[in-house]
Design goal:
Layout: H1 3-62, E1 67-76, H2 92-103, H3 110-117, H4 123-134, E2 142-148, H5 151-157, H6 174-185, E3 189-193, H7 196-199, H8 212-243, H9 248-260, H10 265-279, H11 287-312, H12 315-323, H13 328-356, H14 360-364, H15 385-393, H16 398-429
Antiparallel strand pairs: 1-2, 1-3
Length: 433
């Protein structure tokens, strides 16, 4: 074998060794890529599992709050009790108690009667008062009226209380169980759709508590937030992106806007407490103050999203507008801003959804107060839906547990709807350049 053949054989072996090394490297890289994809898939699956468990837990605890237990009473609207001169202040609770005594005459002792009266909600008297004030001709007649049951009875009917435990370990006593079973056998106790949950304000009694006051407070607060944050945020973004000179001051402003977007929300609550309440003297627990605080918190998000939308508009649009004689203001107002508006709206909706779910800044300005009345304006005392959830979660009654979860379901429905609207707007109006 001559030298040329030997060298050719050596070169061939070196090429084979090089190919082997490359192939082994490729196989190793492919295995690493497959592992990376597997890790990503496992992360997505784990996230979906945890999210599903969270939703199942919330829905499982809260769906029963959309039903309420009612008791049918034969109420005699006694003319001696219902004096026409004082219908609003008559003893309607006495009418409820008399109806219960007529249904269960065996309850003679004071203790038995106290337990008997406890199976009906204290709100039954208010229901009778509203009926008489609306229809005064009912006085002197006997009518069948479905009144809300006490929250303990409601929990028993829904299966949240164990009847088999010792009497000393449950809130419903044996005599009350016997009366409830008698009502059930006679068809005088049943579950109905809980309209009170959607039409009433807060209450100390779980069966009378609703979310309308909190929803109204959130609505007024978000209206103030939207009216202030959207035009100010868009104007600031347009100025910084289209008109502001590039110098140290604009750089300083941009850095601070980006930093404000990451500031904890409770800091904005402290700012609102110090400025809007203590300095300006605005009314405490009012949606107008909540809207101002949430505006400060939402502005950085809207400005950043609006600037991104303006940046996405191609420079050729600006150059074409300026080339046909448009001024810079006309170029921005007639060409750039309409094209960037869908992205701005998407960022605004996402910012508003974040504001809807905030609790900490509203706690700092007093919107944690116990508010029974439904707010009718921007300066009326009010609370917000997340704060209402916080208050109910701290209540010891078992019935507030399901109402807390039900309120969370309503809040999640609002948030999902707002995010869905943002996605639809982006898909509907988004342009790819």
């Amino acid at each position: 074998m001559n030298n040329s053949q030997t060298q050719s054989l050596t070169n061939g072996k070196q090429k084979e060794r090089t190919l082997d090394i490359v192939n082994r490297g490729l196989k190793k890289r492919y295995r690493a890529e497959r592992r990376f994809r597997l890790y990503g898939l496992l992360a997505i699956v784990a996230s979906m599992v945890f999210l599903s468990l969270l939703f199942i837990s919330i829905v499982g605890k809260g769906y029963t709050a959309f039903q309420q237990t009612f008791i049918e009473l034969d109420v005699y609207f006694d003319p001696q009790v219902l004096d026409e001169q004082s219908l609003a202040t008559a003893d309607y609770q006495g009418l409820v108690k008399k109806s219960l005594r007529d249904m269960f005459p065996d309850a003679r002792s004071r203790q038995d009667r106290r337990m008997l009266y406890g199976i009906a909600s204290s709100g039954a008297s208010f229901q009778l008062r509203d009926m008489v004030l609306t229809h005064p001709d009912m006085i002197g007649q006997t009518s069948k009226v479905w009144v809300p049951a006490d929250d303990d009875v409601d929990m028993l009917i829904k299966g949240h209380f164990d009847r088999q435990v010792a009497e000393s370990e449950r809130r419903i006593k044996d005599r009350q169980l016997a009366w409830i079973d008698q009502l059930s056998a006679g068809g005088k106790i049943k579950k109905k759709f809980n309209t009170t949950f959607f039409t009433a304000g807060d209450s100390r009694e779980p069966e009378l508590a609703g979310i309308l006051g909190a929803v109204a407070g959130s609505f007024f607060t978000l209206v103030i937030t939207l009216i202030l944050s959207f035009p100010i945020g868009v104007a600031a973004a347009v100025y910084l992106e289209e008109f502001a000179p590039q110098n140290r001051w604009t750089d300083f402003i941009e850095v601070n806007i980006n930093n404000l977007a990451a500031v904890p929300s409770i800091v904005f609550g402290l700012l609102g407490l110090a400025v809007f309440l203590n300095f300006f003297g605005l009314p405490r627990s009012a949606p107008v103050v909540g809207g101002l605080v949430l505006t400060l918190m939402t502005l950085p998000v809207i400005i950043i999203a609006s600037r991104s939308a303006l940046t996405a508009v191609p420079p050729s649009i600006r150059e074409a507008a300026l080339g046909v004689g448009a001024s810079k203001m006309q170029m921005v107002a007639h060409h750039v801003l309409p094209l960037a508006l869908p992205g701005m709206l998407t960022g605004t909706i996402i910012g508003m959804a974040r504001a809807l779910g905030e609790t900490a800044p509203l706690l700092m300005i007093g919107m944690v107060a116990f508010i029974v009345d439904i707010p009718a304006g921007f300066t009326d005392p009010a609370t917000a839906l997340p704060v209402q959830i916080y208050l109910w979660a701290d209540s010891p009654e078992r019935a507030f547990v399901e109402r807390t979860s039900a309120a969370i379901i309503i809040l999640l429905a609002f948030l999902i709807t707002m995010n869905a609207v943002a996605v639809i707007l982006r898909k509907r109006f988004e342009r790819r350049w």
